[in-house]
Design brief:
Layout lengths: L7 H60 L5 H5 L2 E13 L2 E13 L11 H83 L1
Helix pairs in contact: 1-3
Length: 202
Amino acid sequence: MAKIKLTKSELKAQRDSLKQFSRYLPTLQLKKIQLQVEMRKCMQKLEENEQKQAGVHECMESWIILFSPDNTVEHLSSFIKVEEILTDSQNIAGVEVPVFKSVRFSVSEYDLFSEELWIDSAIDFIKNLFSLKAEHAVIRKQHELIGNELRITTQRVNLFEKVKIPECKENIRVIQIYMGDQQTAAVGRSKIAKRKMQETAA
């Protein structure tokens, strides 16, 4: 703990600091709770996304393999290129995070005579799978950004709760004790001086 001046002005400064920290702490605590809620939402979205990906993958593999063992997801993916992942931004508890919107694809030309009749449907499935993967990456970025802000906010909450506020309270207590002792001593000196004056006058 840093050394403090045992003065009235320092007492006022410590009281002002305590008031400021005490007023700001609930805001930080609320922000921490909001960020924790958003972190849980991100985790839930990631799980749901992974389940959707697994469902699409399983569905595709089950019917593609029936027609031709050579037509795998990897083979079909060669026809598709991700041009752009479109996102928006959103403010969540003071943090700017990306929000997934859609994916823009380009599809290579393919020979309709050499490919299976259902290739158009298969490519749509692949697009869906790629979109889910892109969305997953964006949600992961949200999770990362919110997690960083949560870590910083938690550090600030701990600093205020465990360091700054107790420190101010202790400083106020020390200054008040010192000033009380000084006042008691001054009263004592005043009484002694008064008694001496009375003795001298007598």
